[in-house]
Amino acid sequence: MSLRVRLVAKGFEVPLVVEQEVAQGAIPAGHVRVRLAASGVCHRDLIDRQGRIPYLSLPVTPGHEGVGRVDAVGPGLDPSLVGQRLATLHRDACGECPRCLEGNTSFCAQAAHVFGLTADGTYATFITAPRSAFYAVTLDEAALDDATAACLACTFGTAYRNLVTRGGLKAGESVLITGANGGVGVAAIQIAHRHGARVTAAVRETRHVEALKALGADEVVVAPDGRVHDHCGGFDLVLENVGASVFPHALRCLRLGGRLASVGNIDPTRVPLNLGQLIVFGQTVFGAGGATPDDMAAVLALHGQRPFVLPIAGRMRLFQAEEAHRLLAQGGLFGRIVMSPDPDTEVSP
Ligand SMILES: [Zn+2]
Ligand SMILES: [Zn+2]
Description:
Helix content: 10-25%
Low-confidence stretches: none
CATH superfamily of the largest domain: Medium-chain alcohol dehydrogenases, catalytic domain
Strand content: 15-25%
Number of helices: 9
Structural class: alpha/beta
Order of helices and strands: EEEHEEHEEHEHEHEEHEHEHEHE
Number of strands: 15
Oligomer: single chain
Bound molecules: zinc ion
CATH architecture of the largest domain: Alpha-Beta Complex
């Protein structure tokens, strides 16, 4: 059976539609068709669903976190790709522009195939997309299970790109990670810890404290109102995972010359920025875009040395996509919900 979930209208009033026995069309040149084993449910899926990113093209299959094996390839690709394990990046890349040639494929201006927004995403049995929109998962299922592999790029890849590739994190530096109980947060704690940083995690609820310490946080601050600077400060690097409600407070946690990576946009409200503070304190604010194949190769190498932990908040079936969105929208989950296209998959709440 070939399934796909369709988003047919913006917002939550119109339920997601599950289509069955979906026919597979011809595969365009340079594209691969992947039979997906798992699909992550990400907070961005809710943002996409509400049309808060201006590129949403309806109807569309949601989701940008998936893993599986190549089922068939289009013209121009090596047939030996069939069977290879691939997972999704956020989008494709041209492979020829200066940004692509320097390895910053997520800064490619030619890319137009954005999973779940401009192109069909991962809430499906099959996904057909340009080969450049995937990275090779060089570990097998025994070393990296499907649930973790599906979400690896959007969590550990995003954390790695912001902390290490773009953030230049060095051993001995102090790092603050806000929204630390989310997927990127738990990944960032582990990556920063392994790079020898001193890690402070910030959350809203005390119930996450012990689990985050177990993942490598040296200190966990609980700021129910998001005012993290009431509790800590002077950081070399801040990874801000929440958005407008926390960003201004997180910025005040930087030392002079410190840098802040902005990753969270849960609340898309715009924020006022104190330019005087930025100038006088010599601080850097940047957004990093999605992980690249190079970032993912580094993440896979680290995982191969010692496995990362990605908490799975629930396992569900594609049929339950609407329920998955409802659970995620409620907030407070510890880790990711992962869905399987296999209707016989065991589910766990
Ligand atoms: Zn995601
Ligand atoms: Zn390019």
